[in-house]
Write a structure and sequence with these properties.
This protein has 13 helices and 12 strands. By secondary structure, it is of the alpha/beta class. Strand 1, helix 1 and strand 2 form a beta-alpha-beta unit. The longest helix has 22 residues. It binds 6-O-phosphono-beta-D-fructofuranose. 6-O-phosphono-beta-D-fructofuranose (F6P) binds next to loops. The site of 6-O-phosphono-beta-D-fructofuranose has 11 residues, from loops.
Length: 358
Amino acid sequence: MLRIGMLTSGGDCQALNAAMRGVVKGICSKRDDVEIYGFKDGYKGLIYADFSMLTSKDFSGILTRGGTILGTSRQPFKLMRVPDKDGLDKVEAMKHTYHKLNLNCLVILGGNGTHKTANMLREEGLNVITLPKTIDNDLWGTEMTFGFQSAVDIATDTIDRIHTTATSHSRVFIIEVMGHKVGHVTLHAGIAGGADIILIPEIPYDIKSIAKVIEGRSKAGKPFTILAVAEGAISKEDAKLKKKEYKEKLEKRKYPSIAYELAEQIEKETDKEVRITVPGHTQRGGSPCAYDRVFATRVGAKAAELILKEQYGYMVAMKNGETTKVPLADVAGKLKTVDPKCSIIKEARMIGISFGDE
Ligand code: F6P
């Protein structure tokens, strides 16, 4: 008997269901003696032994469905070793559930935080295979994560729609894009949507150079400007602060997010009217795009292959367009950021996109 535990953890995204479907189809096409334990709401289900027994039928018809049929939750890694309110040791509880159910392995779908816990469970002796899930595309060791391309499509659609109204009113528009501490989604959506200025955390901006671009465009007969701004974008000034100082500054910020702070500064520096659009969680919602459906199916099938070969302790990754495996120990705790010197940035600059830094 092959007993597989499965859970989805962290923020949801498109193609989680498609990836699980890939794993289950891959395994069930080769073996009949399979038991699937679906843990509810991420690691919470593993801690409190909250699970359902699933069959391959439960994974049929979910290729296109957004969200996750298992539910998810955020269980911060730093709190994993802290007992819960009833004094329960969460790590021991997860191990207990795993051993009590006599599982052969755990399939864990998640992003950065999830991978730290997955690696800890591996170190504790559990068999773990992970799949790279996040719209942020910030997982080290893989060139792609599922959810990313769908989020880029949605943010691009927002920028497209804003373009027409920005042009009609000769306004400056800020579209604030998700991405946590990195700028992959903003960079791609910004280029795809024809943004004039792209601000990402990896390239700190200067408000004066943003104002210069906006005024330069007005003088050239383009009285509107579109800014694609990553939620984690940072000014040159703030980038000089120590991590702790910047965190404190953010806590005291009078605005809900960077877009509002920027809007006020741009209105001060120019004579333009500024508007803000925040697509927010729509970027994680709805059906996965075709790319994500294919990608999630491929990494799911690769996970099935590894499980059937009893090769554990890996994240399934994509390298040069091929699926592969990367040791979990190498992935955990590392962030894949945008390299400011990479060719996509150079190409964007080449066609006149400003990163607000010159
Ligand atoms: O990691 C995915 C992500 O959507 C980030 O881009 C964003 O910063 C964060 O999750 C939002 O988290 P929550 O869903 O908890 O508000």
